[in-house]
Amino acid sequence: MSSNPTYPVKVTHPLDRRAPVWGVLAMAFVLLGWGEHAATEPYTSAAFVVGYFWTELQVTALLLVATALFFPWQWLGLRAPQAAAWRHVAPLALLILVVLAVRVWAGTQVSAQARPDPATAWLLLRTTLLVGLNEEWLFRGLALAAFCHWWGWRRGWLAALLAFASLHLLNLIGDVPPVGAAFQFVNTFVMGSVFLLAAVATRSLLWPMLGHAFYDWAVLDTQRFIAAGASQVPSLLLSILALLLGLYSLWRLWHMPERVPYSH
């Protein structure tokens, strides 16, 4: 009687293949950069954000196809959130509550005659919902999971935050001055840690996606109210709070033990 030798089966991790990861990131950067280049409205205008919806829609399609072909959804945080310690989700919750309060407060400072068109607010939200979806999927989902798998927990999340911050350097294409782009780079690196902390704590992108979308919407709509005569003071206080929450989140992330952000 003969027996066939058995050999260990090599298990391939879903993120072992680096080409699809880099390919998706590169294609997303190209699409978003081209959208800024092709825009006919100034980057700082509400009309630019409204028109940018179609660029974001292309990125959503890219992520849908790439994830379906290469990456199991659950490995990217596309799953229901788990319970988490309050200290890990509180920064995101507080940030959203305050930014929405600032938006409401700014609206009360503008007279009915000077109030911006309310229809534009809904169009802005349409875009920011996709921005929240795409940027969290791309950077707190794909990039974070892949980089942590390749380089370990701490280097992985730092690299994911750097990638997220680097995306905002594309705003140079939209005629943002270099000093402004450098500020956006630092600001988004720190701010991104708030979303990242909530994502890894809940092992899900759901709350970061929603929080990101409503934060961007409230900031953009507040700027419209400021342009119509509202005070800038609450917006400046919000910026300080966001910085402090981001620094707190970075501290929490730095002291987290080695972990896999998401698993099957």
Structural class: mainly alpha
Give the tally of β-strands.
Answer: 0
Number of domains: 1
In percent, how helical is the residue content? over 70%
Structural shape = globular
Largest sheet: none
Stretches with pLDDT under 50, minimum 5 residues: none
Q: What portion of residues belong to β-strands?
A: under 5%
Mean pLDDT: 92
What is the gyration radius calculated from CA atoms? 20 Å
Secondary-structure element sequence? HHHHHHHHH
The rounded distance between the terminal residues' Cα atoms is: 41 Å
The number of distinct helices, counting runs of at least 4 residues, comes to: 9
Keywords: Membrane, Transmembrane, Transmembrane helix
Pfam families: Rce1-like
Protein name: CAAX prenyl protease 2/Lysostaphin resistance protein A-like domain-containing protein
GO biological process, one term: CAAX-box protein maturation
Structure commentary:
- The chain is an all-alpha fold and 264 residues long.
- The chain has one domain (18-254).
- The chain has helices at residues 18-38, 46-51, 53-70, 86-108, 118-151, 153-167, 178-202, 206-227, 233-254.
List the helices and strands and how they pair.
Elements: H1 18-38, H2 46-51, H3 53-70, H4 86-108, H5 118-151, H6 153-167, H7 178-202, H8 206-227, H9 233-254
Helix pairs in contact: 1-3, 1-5, 3-5, 4-7, 4-8, 4-9, 5-6, 5-8, 6-7, 7-8, 7-9
